[in-house]
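ok so i was messing around last nite and threw this chain in just to see what happens. nothing serious, just curious
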Amino acid sequence: MGFIHPLVLWLLPLALLPILLERSNTRSYSWLDMLPPDPLSNLIGLLLKILAAISLFCIILGLAGPHSLERKIERVGIGAQIGMVIDRSASMDDPFSGGTAEGRVGETKSVAAARLMTDFVNARKNDMIGVITFSNSAMYVLPLTESREAILAAIKATAGNSLFQTNISGGLTSAIGLFEKVPDSGSRAIILISDGAGRVSGEMQQKIRDWLQRYNISLYWVVLREPGGVTIFDPKYEDHFEGVLPSAVELYYYFKGLRSPFNVYEAEDPKSLAAAMADINQKEKKTIKYIEKIPGHNFTQLCYLIAALMIGLLLGVKYLELRTWSTKV
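result:
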C-alpha cells in the first residue's frame, strides 16, 4: 500500500475525537442519578461515535491518496522489443506515384506508413514498442511500452505535417537509446522507415555500429522509393563506381557492413510497403521473456464513498431525533 500524500496521515489521530469527546446534551441536566440505566441508548450513542470516527478516518485517508503498489509479472510470449524510427521530412507528404491500396488513390507515404504500422502493432500482442521521429533532428515520441493505446496514438501522430531535412543518424541514435535502460527480452529490433538518406559522419557511423552490437539490436530499413528514383540495389554501384554515391546507396553499403543483423526493403507503393511490414512481422516472432506491469488501484474514491455513507447515517439519525423532539413538543 502506498500514499500520494503520506504526510496527511499525521492527521489520523483526529478521527478519535468523536469517541473521546462527550456530547453536550449529556451535561444539560442537573442530576440524572435516579434515572434507571439505559444500555440500549448507551450502545446507540457509542455506535454513533464510531460512525463519526470512521467518517473522519476515511476522509483523512482519502486526502492521503491511498493506492496499491504496481506489480511486475514475468511472462513468456512471442514478440520483440521494437524501436520504430519514422522519417518526418517534407518528402514524406508526397504521395506514392500512382500508388493504390484498397481504393486509396494518391495515399501519401506518411499516411500509408502510419496505417500499415498500425496494422503491424495490432497483429502483435506481446511487443514492447517505442517511437522516434526525425527530420532536421530526432524527436523522442514514446519510450518502449506495452501500452497499445499509447503506441497507436504515437503512430497516428506521425502522419501530421512534416519538416525539411533527413537526419537519420539522430533518429537511429535516439532509437538505440530506447533500449539502454530496459532489460533485454531476447529479441530487439529497430525498424527505420524513410524515403531518403542524409549523410552520416564517420564518428556517428562508428557510434551506431558499436551501440547496435552492444545492445544486441537488429536493424530493418524500409526505403520508400519513388518510381523512377535511384534504387539501392542497382548493380552499377557495387564495384568500382566512379563518382559520388547517392546518399541512400552509401547508407545501404554502410548498413551492410554492420556487425549486427540487417535487412533492407524497397517499397514503391503501399502494396510493397505492406509486404515489407509483413516480412518483418514474420522475422520478429520469437519467444521472449517480458515484464508485464500491472498498475496499482487508487482507493481514494472508495474512502470518500465510505465516509459519505457514514455521514449519511449520522444525518439520518439526527433527522429522526429532531422529528421525535418536535412530536413531543
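not much to say yet. The longest strand covers residues 71-79.
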